[in-house]
Amino acid sequence: MERQRRFASEKDEYQFQHQGAVELLVFNFLLILTILTIWLFKNHRFRFLHETGGAMVYGLIMGLILRYATAPTDIESGTVYDCGKLTFSPSTLLVNITEKVYEYKYKREISQHNINPHQGNAILEKMTFDPEIFFNVLLPPIIFHAGYSLKKRHFFQNLGSILTYAFLGTAISCIVIGLIVYGFVKAMIYAGQLKNGDFHFTDCLFFGSLMSATDPVTVLAIFHELHVDPDLYTLLFGESVLNDAVAIVLTYSISIYSPKENPNTFDAAAFFQSVGNFLGIFAGSFAMGSAYAVVTALLTKFTKLCEFPMLETGLFFLLSWSAFLSAEAAGLTGIVAVLFCGVTQAHYTYNNLSSDSKMRTKQLFEFMNFLAENVIFCYMGLALFTFQNHIFNALFILGAFLAIFIARACNIYPLSFLLNLGRKQKIPWNFQHMMMFSGLRGAIAFALAIRNTGSQPKQMMFTTTLLLVFFTVWVFGGGTTPMLTWLQIRVGVDLDENLKEEPPSHQEANNLDKSTTKAESARLFRMWYGFDHKYLKPILTHAGPPLTTTLPEWCGPISRLLTSPQAYGEQLKEDDVECIVNQDELAMNYQEQGSSPCSPPARLGLDQKASPQTPSKENIYEGDLGLGSYELKLEQTLGQSQMN
Amino acid sequence: MEPGDAARPGPGRVVRALRPRLLLLPLLPLLLGRGLRAGAAASSSGAAAEDSSAMEELATEKEAEESHRQDSVSLLTFILLLTLTILTIWLFKHRRVRFLHETGLAMIYGLIVGVILRYGTPATSGRDKSLSCTQEDRAFSTLLVNVSGKFFEYTLKGEISPGKINSVEQNDMLRKVTFDPEVFFNILLPPIIFHAGYSLKKRHFFRNLGSILAYAFLGTAVSCFIIGNLMYGVVKLMKIVGQLSDKFYYTDCLFFGAIISATDPVTVLAIFNELHADVDLYALLFGESVLNDAVAIVLSSSIVAYQPAGLNTHAFDAAAFFKSVGIFLGIFSGSFTMGAVTGVVTALVTKFTKLHCFPLLETALFFLMSWSTFLLAEACGFTGVVAVLFCGITQAHYTYNNLSVESRSRTKQLFEVLHFLAENFIFSYMGLALFTFQKHVFSPIFIIGAFVAIFLGRAAHIYPLSFFLNLGRRHKIGWNFQHMMMFSGLRGAMAFALAIRDTASYARQMMFTTTLLIVFFTVWIIGGGTTPMLSWLNIRVGVDPDQDPPPNNDSFQVLQGDGPDSAGGNRTKQESAWIFRLWYSFDHNYLKPILTHSGPPLTTTLPAWCGLLARCLTSPQVYDNQEPLREEDSDFILTEGDLTLTYGDSTVTANGSSGSHTASTSLEGRRTKSSSEEVLERDLGMGDQKVSSRGTRLVFPMGDNA
């Protein structure tokens, strides 16, 4: 008897343990399928379905199978135990079951009306991840990669516009969506579909903020493949990257907005507390991220770690990850910190790495980004069927659809108008339409929505978000290519042709360019560029003018200490300090020559690799954006060696 | 029930119970934390709730957030440790200090942090509540608890043995930095083992396959048995002296023998690699240590599974013994098959799709398939780590040849980084565990006994086996090699992971402590003494792995058609036994052509009646490759394998421009020889990559001109 029982429980545990492997296996197979399909599509140049869309389709199919083809098992798990002794819910629970003690971990709170669906299918239950996985594991590589591959020159040229779109635009879009949805909620209450008092204005704003995180990964992939105008690309990409950070912090600050008395009324103190929270978290995360990147830059500058690319890559990876963890440990938002860490790493550290490490880090994060992104989209497809607490409300969904379009329009058109007043190089109408069109929702919106599905409004939001993501990814993503031709946006622009026109004739072309650049970037930004070029770059990288010339006399020893010997060698190129933006790019090229002597064999290998690749330019620009710039440097080095 | 049974609550079951959903958390141990962030939950209650419950909820949220924060901090500790290690290692490498390897350093830093955590942090008591609810008679995976009107969901974490309940409520910080042991098996070991398999130096490995297998299988069994017996003697002695306070059975001793038989001479190998020590010695040591791990894992799990049927659970029982042997064979062959099959599937997929146009997709596919092996094996009840090892070997042997040049370097680098991080993580955790692990049992007699036992075990394993092998080997294993192999019996990650897996009983805790000390000692002392030992034993260093073959077995000359160097050919033939030659020819004639783009076309090797199938499976590139002059010497299979690899390279890279292959391959062959010096500085795989990239350079201009 005893033995039998033990046997049964052993078997139970056995099954229990293998479930984990099986779940993951399902995801693995879905991803493998996705990869093969995507290869097929890419091979035949189908552009209407991006890999993320494909992942969602497979996820949907798998979800359907799991939902309707597996028998509901595990009837007992729905039993509720009452324990009079417990007055609160501890994080760890030790349960004594017939002389054996089991440790249970707190998972979540379940609201009353959700208990019944819980008695369902064990497999469905198992296929549901802890939502925190998205925030702690899957999103960081995606966001870091985005920050790391921001194309620097175009990004900084358009920095003002991008920041405007990201901050102001997101705020506008959040409020507009919140208001429209609130209207629909009122209508729903009027129609009797919703109880009064369930759905507050803060909930609507919450929805608005999570819906403001655009993620046009599909559109960007197509842009990239077709070599669409780099300015449009940068605007969209930069906006979507910063957007995510803003939306995450905004969501968080809205969720902690809790007025003292009546939760529905406006409370100035709580409001300002939320605003303060927003600013504090944002600034804190920003500081944390950049601080780690600066540390990495200093470490890679002052050690000769570039002799051992593997160590360098390891260090880079670990420190970037520490940025995330430190921010989380300090109560800030890790993802935002990681984003800025990525941007700073790309701006400074990247220049200090050996060429081998540059390649390695790029590829490593590219790979992680690819996997994480597809897992998320796959999971989205799966969640439509396996998530057990969906609330489909036609009116709400309709309202949300309307709201996101209107809000996107309210974000893009007025802001573009305002920006065009100040910009020398206007954002034309077709760009605006395209940006309006590219308001896809993706991983961030989903992750924010799934984070909390405890209450009824939140579940409704989650369902709606899911549908919105599906719709936008499939329909808008698929419609990008027709839209591009319809709007007559020039494609086939070589991102680096622009650049290549300039380098040979820096001195002359820059005079022409300078005025544009200057007018475009406002005074504040120019100041930043000057500061960056004169102080930060020399301190953190091997490039730029030596600090001894830029710093005042009295800090001579420090500046001599901080300047790398390579910097002195390049003084002759010092004259054109004014054309800072291009200098930025230039400095990177100098740098390449500066650091390669550190490992002559590597340079040799570089030349060899470069020569076969030059004829096949197609190939070169097929890689990621960041890789493009890397490739460019290869050519430069090659030219050098030929001259020698 | 037997009293013995109660004290020893079925280790197998505990192990399985402890293994729960960790698999879910593949990428980062970060997820160990529950990480329930408060923020979003704040608005969850929706309507205004009563004051008191809101307060309680807030308390829970705060606690959850606090715990998330602590998780972050503990992970951060490890990451900063690793960062420090990397920086110090760079310093050491830069200054060419060889007495301390990075793993040894990671352990030292781990020790320091462990001391700080142990004595520098206040002991906060956990807020765990123990309650006894008697409604249920089984443990469910999820538990819904009704706490004053609200429902909370709890997930099963594991079973706790009664003795541990008190220790659960100790220092929070120490608890946080103590990982679930299954993390090692599910997250950290697989990349290490896969990398080992993936970077097995193929040619030298296969040349010494017989000896390696003998060392790995027979040797591990011998060493396990001898250590077990010696330890049993020590335990008996302890009983007489009265130092043993709890039970310690013969099976426990054997278990200890099994876990401590897993050698891991990573330090020694790193030094060999750096100094270019003799390739054969390197291959022997590396191959032995890699296969060793697999054998030790399976052996220890089959010893655990040894449960005699009779009343006395610790007497010898033939049925149970044979069952254990059966389990060993079953798990081993099952895992082997699983790994090999996934490797083969990957090879087929990469061969028949043109995935190599998109290196990212290719790399992702490669990674996912290799990971699937692990999951599949775990899901079927085999050992994932063993499956991953064989998957790695198969991938290196077949799939690697189908990958694009870029993917080759990507996969190599990816697994290299993962391996590096995981390995150093484990070693720094070891250092940490010496102080943060809360149930150490230090028993001097046992520890001294174990030290003596591992040296005797190692000696009894190496010398007799080498003697027997030397009877059959043409190319003898010299005395200095034997001494070096004896000396390199370091213990490392695998022994530690096996020991920490189950620390429930007194005997196991003692084993764990002893294993930890053995690892420390061997890594620091023996690892540090490698360089002096090498010079003392007169082992030649600075050997270039590929300069070595010409004097040794002349196969290159033979292949280039220099003339029938019969002596060299004979030697090669004799060295590998009949069965291996059979395997080689099978591999060369059938498997390679089926799975890769290289080798002779299947249409020539397969019998006529399956011509259609053969044509379907042979890739078009193979026909272009078929160079008559090289087809003749198909009896020198051993090195042929290497050559075909080169063919494979050129065909894959040149997939755009066909036509000029013959010229480029022959040129390439010559190039490899002339400039081997720097090419072979890294491991073989990288070497191949470089060679092939050079090949590309040769090919592309031609394609352009045409």
From TrEMBL, chain A:
Signal peptide: none annotated. Residues 33-486 form the Cation/H+ exchanger transmembrane domain. Pfam families: Na_H_Exchanger. Residues 591-622 are annotated as: Disordered. This is Sodium/hydrogen exchanger. It comes from Oryctolagus cuniculus (Rabbit). It is found in: Cell membrane; Recycling endosome membrane. The chain crosses the membrane at residues 20-41, 48-69, 133-150, 162-185, 205-223, 235-258, 278-302, 314-347, 367-387, 394-419, 462-487.
